[in-house]
Write a structure and sequence with these properties.
Layout (H helix, E strand, L loop, with lengths): L1 H19 L5 H4 L3 E8 L5 E8 L7 H4 L2 E5 L5 E4 L3 E6 L4 E7 L5 E7 L4 E4 L7 E2 L5 E6 L2 E6 L5 E5 L1 E7 L4 E7 L4 E7 L7 E6 L3 E7 L3 E8 L6 E8 L4 E6 L7 H4 L2 E7 L4 E6 L32 H7 L9 E6 L4 E6 L5 E4 L7 E6 L15 E7 L5 E8 L4 E2 L6 E5 L4 E6 L4 E4 L24 E5 L4 E5 L4 E5 L7 E2 L4 H5 L1 E5 L9 E2 L5 E7 L5 E6 L5 E7 L2 E7 L5 E7 L6 E6 L4 E4 L14 E8 L5 E8 L9 E6 L23 H6 L3 E5 L8 H18 L3 E11 L1 H9 L8 E5 L5 H4 L12 H5 L13 H6 L13 E4 L9 H13 L4 E4 L11 H19 L6 H5 L17
Helix pairs in contact: 8-9
């Protein structure tokens, strides 16, 4: 009995505490902060980050410039104030940064994180700090000074040209410039007088060199020759020096030689690239500009211009000058070959010592399609550097082709077949390399008219024999020597368990090298729950889940020893913070602590729901439930959607004034349910697609007893503002609707301009987000059917429109026209135009005003609150800036 009483007391106390939490309102916003500028040091010992308050106007400058440095060994945090843009150096043991003093003077500072030692830089020019050691170097007059921090070791070099520090900054390789000679020298950094002279020349200019750790090259220019000629030499640190090229002896036609603009050595120096002007350039001064006639200005729009006039005006576009012609010269065969046309967008030589081919991308054929194609199309070409023979192997592609690391193949994804291919440059033979993969290698959920993207070819084995390709769940190993030997690297575990397996996202695809003799770390994502984690494929091919849970992880960097990774981690109820994961000990540590316990305010929860939509397909959505949700009660619901939202299941929403869409935490705290259904679109039928998903989802939450059918509203902005305006012409299930900056007349907007860029909106409809998939004349009926203003007479829902007169994406008259149409039909409608604002509201006071009016609008229709005076009386033009009329009519 005593235990029961104790439990009852605890229950009542918890209820009291539950009820005592304040609601989220405008006073709460100033409490919230986000993490910013986080990174891990090279040695994995330190993690830096700072907090930035959401309400920046209330943020003191000293807090804004306060950085935290977390020690991963001791789990202690060091705080340094008045820091701007800190960067790690000396293997992560030091930082350098700028500091602003009280009198606004800027100082450059160095700080020893281990010894708490600060050095204010007073030596003139800012130092260059070594990423590996405590060495810094700086210019002082005509000298270059090298100084080892924390010691008295320093050395000054005179007449120094380019240089490179080697062997963890112990040795130096540099150019010394004498009165009449140049020398390439090498030796210990602090023993200047014992340096070895690798090369000396008194006639030619030695400006710079290249060195890869074993061997290098440098160029000698004949200073008085026209055109500039040069010699190229190879060298190593033992003193072996060999001349590999002399441009004076090259077998070049004289007219070509006189047009050379630049030379570039490829590979080992056997092949050289020549950039060549189309004609011999005149030394005569250009004629003075023609005086413009100011009597009038003509704007000529021509059908065959590559770029329309409005884009030219917005981007400062000028008629494009032709690129330089490119030739290659073979120093062994003494042949020169023109390798590419003037027009190309991408160029990569075969990555071998003596390249024989170059990969080109040419988009010239598709330049004038930019008005109606969102994704740039291009053709792929291979050119033989010895013969100039050209092979166009793929046309009208949207992705990029790349070389395999060993240069044996070019690999690309074909938009038409949606498969991966390779082409052998020696034979021009093309093979499908994903044919043996039993599942699609492209995005199966893609629902836009433009071609679907591949899941990815991410990484190669060390010897470049194996390429690694993703399907929806798993990773496949493609044997480039024997395509029949293709196998599933993750053994189908991902598909069986419903978990998307991807290589740990800390490297770009061209940096990622897979060594299957060691454990390979993976990102894990369970599609159904959106739970994430970190795992590894062991040497014996088994998947180990080292960390997995109901949160979202995003990698932000890795230590040089590949042992520690810095992440941001968040969930709907757990604020986004910095964490460090030790890949060897499989241990996760929290580093920052932004917004603990949601700063003590009322917070809601989120769950994923599933139903069958109007088209008979499986549908998902997110249901955000208010603080203290009681299953026995019905709550007002706002349906808020854009496209798909289930991938946002574990995103932490920081409460703040709204710039467009409603603020989820604020509405939850004020007793609303927010429903965000996923919408997958059928090309050509955006309105029906929204209807199928949204209406079926609302019916589901009504049937489940979650929603009160008499108190359901809907909101959308931009693209979803467009579809909300369509939706309310098709159903009367919503008590009210908030529409922001949405297109309401597709037939007119198709040829309208996006003011911000000057581009037409055609690409939005034919190729991208609006998903019509046809031009206006091919799909005329569909454009009319999906234009809400042409069906405005069917709208019975009260509407609040927010559309601003400086909207750079959707022209203001779209929102105004819908208002005028509903006004003419005598339907309840209000239009808010925050004058001077764009597609989103930037002005802080305007955001505050919009948030208040939006809440009052929904409260009136969904909570039966009295109507505010601004909705009842309006605001006359003479009342602007005075009475805001927030008060409710009693």
């Amino acid at each position: 009995m005593k235990n029961i009483i104790v439990l009852l007391v605890l229950f009542l106390m918890s209820g009291s505490l539950w009820a005592s939490r304040p609601k989220i309102d405008s006073t709460a916003y100033a409490c919230w902060k986000r993490i910013d500028d986080y990174a891990i040091s090279e040695n994995g010992m330190w993690v830096k980050y700072r907090y930035v308050y959401i309400e920046q106007a209330k943020q003191l400058e000293n807090i804004q410039n306060r950085y935290y440095f977390y020690n991963t060994r001791t789990s202690k945090t060091k705080v340094i104030d008045n820091v701007e843009s800190p960067e790690f150096f000396a293997n992560g043991n030091w930082i350098y940064y700028t500091e602003l003093s009280d009198n606004n003077n800027v100082s450059f500072c160095l700080f020893d994180l281990n010894r708490d030692k600060k050095i204010v830089w007073d030596k003139g020019n800012e130092p260059n700090c070594s990423t590996k050691t405590v060495l810094v170097n700086y210019a002082s007059g005509d000298k270059r000074i090298f100084w080892r921090l924390g010691t008295k070791d320093s050395v000054a070099y005179e007449r120094m040209g380019s240089f490179k520090l080697l062997d963890d900054d112990r040795n130096i390789l540099y150019v010394w410039k004498g009165e009449n000679e140049y020398e390439l020298r090498y030796g210990e950094l602090f023993k200047v007088h014992s340096h070895k002279v690798l090369f000396r020349d008194s006639d030619r200019l030695l400006r710079h060199f290249n060195f890869d750790g074993k061997q290098g090259s440098f160029e000698l220019e004949y200073s008085r020759s026209k055109p500039i000629n040069s010699q190229v030499w190879n060298f190593d640190l033992n003193g072996s020096v060999k001349n590999i090229a002399d441009t004076r002896t090259w077998n070049l036609p004289l007219d070509l030689k006189n047009r050379i603009s630049n030379l570039k050595m490829l590979g080992d120096g056997t092949i050289w690239e020549l950039e060549v002007h189309n004609s011999i350039r005149s030394d005569k001064k250009k004629a003075s500009a023609v005086k413009r006639d100011s009597a009038f200005e003509l704007e000529l729009w021509s059908w065959n211009d590559p770029v329309i006039q409005s884009v030219q005006a917005e981007s400062g576009y000028k008629k494009r000058f032709s690129k330089l012609d490119k030739y290659v010269y073979n120093t062994k065969t003494r042949k020169v070959v023109k390798i590419c046309p003037e027009v190309y967008t991408f160029m990569r030589y075969q990555p071998v010592d003596v390249p024989r081919f170059v990969l080109l991308t040419d988009n010239s054929e598709f330049q004038n399609r930019k008005d109606w194609q969102y994704a740039e199309r291009k053709n792929f070409l291979l050119i033989n550097l010895e013969t100039g023979e050209m092979c166009e192997f793929a046309k009208e592609q949207t992705k990029q082709a790349v070389w395999s690391p060993d240069g044996k193949f070019v690999v690309y994804f074909d938009d038409i077949t949606r498969e991966w291919y390779r082409i052998n440059p020696e034979t021009f033979k093309i093979d499908n390399i994903s044919e043996a993969i039993n599942y699609p290698v492209y995005d199966e959920f893609h629902d836009k008219p433009l071609p679907a993207a591949p899941y990815g070819l991410i990484g190669w084995s060390k010897d470049a024999r194996f390429a690694y390709i993703y399907d929806c769940y798993d990773i496949w190993r493609v044997d480039m020597d024997d395509l029949s030997n293709t196998s599933c690297y993750t053994q189908g575990i991902g598909r069986r368990e419903g978990i998307v397996l991807r290589f740990l996202n800390v490297y770009s695809s061209d940096e990622l090298t897979i060594d299957e003799k060691e454990s390979v770390y993976l990102d894990l994502l369970e599609l159904k729950t959106r739970n994430q984690g970190i795992g590894r494929i062991t040497v014996d091919g088994k998947l180990r889940k080292d960390l997995f849970g109901s949160f979202m992880l995003q990698a932000g960097g890795i230590s040089n020893d590949s042992r520690k990774v810095v992440f941001s981690r968040q969930s709907f109820s757990e604020g986004r913070n910095v964490w460090v994961y030790d890949l060897q000990n499989h241990k996760m540590e929290q580093v920052s602590n932004a917004n603990p316990d949601n700063n003590g305010f009322q917070w809601g929860s989120v769950k994923m729901v599933e139903w069958t939509n109007e088209s008979g397909k499986w549908n998902q959505g997110l249901l955000y439930l208010p603080y203290g949700y009681d299953v026995s009660k019905k709550y007002p619901v706002i349906v808020n959607y854009y496209e798909t939202h289930t991938q946002e299941m574990h995103i932490y929403h920081v409460p703040e004034w709204s710039s467009a869409m409603l603020d989820i935490p604020t509405f939850l705290s004020n007793g609303y349910i927010i429903f965000r259904p996923d919408v997958y679109f059928t090309v050509g039928e955006p309105a029906k697609s929204v209807y199928d998903a949204v209406v079926s989802g609302v019916k589901y939450i009504i049937d489940e007893g979650i929603a009160d059918p008499k108190h359901i509203g809907v909101q959308g902005h931009s693209w979803s503002g467009c579809t909300v305006s369509q939706l309310i012409t098709m159903t009367d299930m919503f008590c009210c609707a908030s529409i922001g900056a949405g297109v309401v007349n597709l037939t007119e907007a198709y040829t309208a301009l996006r003011i911000g860029s000057g581009c037409t909106r055609m690409f939005m409809y034919e190729d991208w987000q609006c998903r019509m998939g046809k031009n206006l004349w091919e799909g005329k009926d569909a454009y009319i059917r999906n234009s809400s203003i042409l069906n405005a007479d069917k709208i019975t829902t009260p509407v609040l429109i927010m559309h601003n007169d400086k909207d750079e994406a959707v022209e203001f008259h779209e929102g105004r026209n819908l208002f005028l149409a509903l006004r003419r039909l005598q339907k309840p409608v209000w239009l808010l135009n925050y004058k001077g604002e764009g597609h989103f509201i930037c002005n802080a006071e305007a955001r505050r005003d919009w948030s208040i009016r939006m809440m009052q609008f929904f409260n009136h229709y969904l909570k039966n609150d009295p109507i505010p005076r601004w909705m009842e009386e309006g605001i006359n033009i003479n009342e602007r800036g005075g009475d805001r009329k927030y008060d409710l009519v009693k």
